[in-house]
C2H2-type domain-containing protein (Mugilogobius chulae), 145 residues
Amino acid sequence: MRVHSGEKPYDCRVCGKRFSERSNQARHMLIHSDEKPHKCSVCDKTFIQKNHLTTHQRLKHHMCPVCEERFTDDESLEEHLRTHVEDGTVDKSVLKPYSWSAQRPYSCSDCGKGFKFCDQRFTDDEKLKEHLRTHRTEPYIRTYS
């Protein structure tokens, strides 16, 4: 109930930040050391928190969080994840972080950028228009009326 009462009895001995849970204090203490206990098996990059490693593997190495199979691109990974949902291994909510098209619905019709999370999909049409300017052969000259 400390979370609701606002009580924070655990403090960081280095910076003084206070925490309601001992586990949060312990995790915080890692930022003051060089300890990064979670290591990527693909590129050897290390992380303080396991969820940061999981995110790294999903975005950089296209790794399935269920069976750890790797894919060459995000689309293949998303397609693979659907097999886990269909066979009942996992709930369909596992697909939510992978549905980039729902998060960034505007894609560039010239270069096709936009399907993968890390490959410029745009959150609104203004950002898409700005990107489209990079495909023009002549420089864009703004006219004022």
